[in-house]
Amino acid sequence: MIATRFVTDRLAMLPLRVEYAEAMTPVLADPGLYEFTGGEPPTAGALTERYRRQVAGPGRPGESWLNWVISATQYDELVGYVQATVLGDEAEIAWVLGTTWQGLGYAKEAAVGLVGWLEAHGAARIIAHVHPDHIASAGVAAAAGLRRTEQMDDGELLWVR
User: Fold this and answer.
1) How far apart are the two ends of the chain, measured CA to CA in Å?
2) Which residues contact 156 (CB under 8 A, 6 or more apart)?
3) What is the pLDDT of residues 36-74, one digit of tens each?
4) How confident is the model at residue 76 (pLDDT cuts 50, 70, 90)?
5) How far apart are CA 57 and CA 63, in angstroms?
6) Backbone angles phi, psi at 20, to 5 degrees
7) What is the mean pLDDT of the chain?
8) Whole-prediction pTM value?
């Protein structure tokens, strides 16, 4: 499976390119983004290296890394990212929206679009890992049609569609 561009009402999901690292560095610069996931804001150099690895893919047969940056079409500005790791017909998804752009419904819109894209490309099961205290991400998962399970994985609840 290969990431291709797709759009929603207000957003364009652009397949990841290494060149996006510079524009994405300020989007990911708020330490508050890492409250539930851990880590810290990446430097431009670290993000460039991460994007190189992500674009190269896992190198394992049958597994795909699909990564997109989110562009708010009204502003022609990058605002976050969505991603999926696909193994067979199962996809594990994640989303991150820069704090400047939170509260506008962009994360929900991007996640709904991502789930639709994945299902159209053969994903039968979609999973998200959500920290039990991250109410906003739980809302995004629910809007994307995932249901919360009681199964925990590394401190996070699994949400499944």
Assistant:
1) 19
2) 129, 130, 131, 132
3) 999 999 999 999 999 999 999 999 999 999 999 999 999
4) very high
5) 8
6) -75, -10
7) 97
8) 0.96
Residue for token pair 């890992």: 129
Query: In which residue are the tokens 């976050």 written?
Result: 80
Q: Could you tell me which residues come within 8 angstroms of residue 1 by beta carbon, excluding any fewer than 6 positions away?
A: 64, 66, 86, 121, 122
Domain ranges of the chain: 6-160
- Spatial separation of the C-alpha atoms in residues 77 and 114, rounded to whole Å: 19
Predicted pLDDT at 142 = 98
Give me the CATH topology for the region 6-160: Aminopeptidase (3.40.630)
Residue with tokens 């299902």: 119
Name the burial class of residue 103, with classes exposed (0-12), middle (13-18) and buried (19+) by CB atoms within 10 angstroms of its CB.
exposed
Q: Let me know the angle formed at the C-alpha of 32 by 141 and 150, rounded to the nearest 5 degrees.
A: 35
